[in-house]
Each structure stands twice: as C-alpha cells, then as structure tokens.
Amino acid sequence: MDDQRFRKAMGKFATGVTIVTTKTGEDIHGMTANAFMSVSLNPKLVLISIDEDANMNRYIQDEKRFAVSILHEKQKYLSAYFAGQVKERKTIAFANFLEMPVIKEALVTLVCDVADTIVAGDHTLFLGKVQDLAINDGLPLTFFDGDYQQFATDIKLDG
C-alpha cells in the first residue's frame, strides 16, 4: 500500500490535539502533535511520537524533558500555528508549569521527564514519566479525517 492510503486510513481515527513543548536555555520550542497516548497508571507514563527529522526530536533528546498541553476546542489557532500552517511569526504567551512552558488555558497540561526512547520507523517514541499535571474544564479540540471537528456532547446511549 502507498503512504497516502495509509495516512488516509490512520486519519479515520479521531484524536485530541496536543502541543508538545520543551525549553533549551531560554528558548522555547513547540509543535502540534496528535500522536499522544497514556501508557501506564503506575508509574504514570505517557507516550509521544516525534518525526526523526523534526527539530523537536533533537530538543527533547538533549533536554530529557517535555510538556504536553491537551488543547481546548477554542485553541484551534494555536494548533495551526505550531503545525506551521500560520506563516506569520507571533509571540505566544506561555504559562510556566514546573519551569516548563505550557499552553495557557489548555484542558490538561503535563510535565514529563523522558523515561525511555525507542526509534520506530521514521519516528522516535518518547516515554514520559509524568511529574505533575493541571486540569481545566471545557471541551477538547479534536481531529478526524484530516480536519478539526466539533466534539458532540448530546449523544444519548440507549440500553
């Protein structure tokens, strides 16, 4: 099968949208990612997948620390910005959580220390040990079939 067909099939899996951040000296780096998942409750572990060619891969490898901000439905602009879809440079006002830059008013922010790295194909999987997290109310920004979607809140299950 070709790459486009595989990408289209994987796009049928609805996901939330995150921004992964890290800091090198005084420089803050961020990128949009939907390749994020919870791995373990004890110890508290999450996983992010970063392209081998992405600058973020090197930054996280060097710093051994990263943050994940799970975006609120009203943060679509930030997702597009950190995905490189917005060409103009903006100054983003980050919040500071455990000395790590995170997205203000995100649904969830987590700060992680890298517990392990695994090269898998053309990506590096970073297993992060969660140091702490913060939770806010709201609905998630979701992504499905190559586009942002509204989160349905009126679904009723019969039975």
Features:
Pnp Oxidase, Chain A; 159 residues; alpha+beta; 3 helices; 15% helix
In short:
The protein is an alpha+beta fold and 159 residues long.
**β-strand amount:** over 45%
Radius of gyration: 16 Å
Largest sheet: 7 strands, antiparallel
End-to-end distance, in Å? 40 Å
Strand elements, count: 12
Return residue spans where pLDDT drops below 50 for at least 5 consecutive residues. Answer: none
Instruction: Encode the helix/strand succession as letters.
Output: HEEEEEHEHEEEEEE
Per DSSP, the total helix count is 3
What number of domains? Answer: 1
Pfam families: Flavin_Reduct (PF01613)
EC number: 1.-.-.-
Keywords: Oxidoreductase
Protein name: Flavin reductase family protein
What's the SSE blueprint?
Layout: H1 3-10, E1 15-16, E2 18-24, E3 27-33, E4 36-40, E5 45-51, H2 55-63, E6 65-70, H3 76-82, E7 94-97, E8 100-103, E9 108-120, E10 123-135, E11 142-144, E12 147-149
Task: Give an overview in words.
This protein is an alpha+beta fold. The chain has a single domain (about 5-10, about 15-150), classed as Electron Transport, Fmn-binding Protein, Chain A (Pnp Oxidase, Chain A, Roll), CATH 2.30.110.10. Helix content is about 15%, strand content about 45%. The strands form three sheets. Strands 3-2-6-9-10-5-4 form a seven-stranded antiparallel β-sheet. The protein has a three-stranded antiparallel β-sheet with strand order 1-11-12, with no helix packed on it. A hairpin with a 2-residue loop joins strand 2 (about 20-25) and strand 3. Its EC number is 1.-.-.-. It comes from Paracerasibacillus soli. InterPro entries: Flavin_Rdtase-like_dom, NADH-dep_flavin_reductase, Split_barrel_FMN-bd.
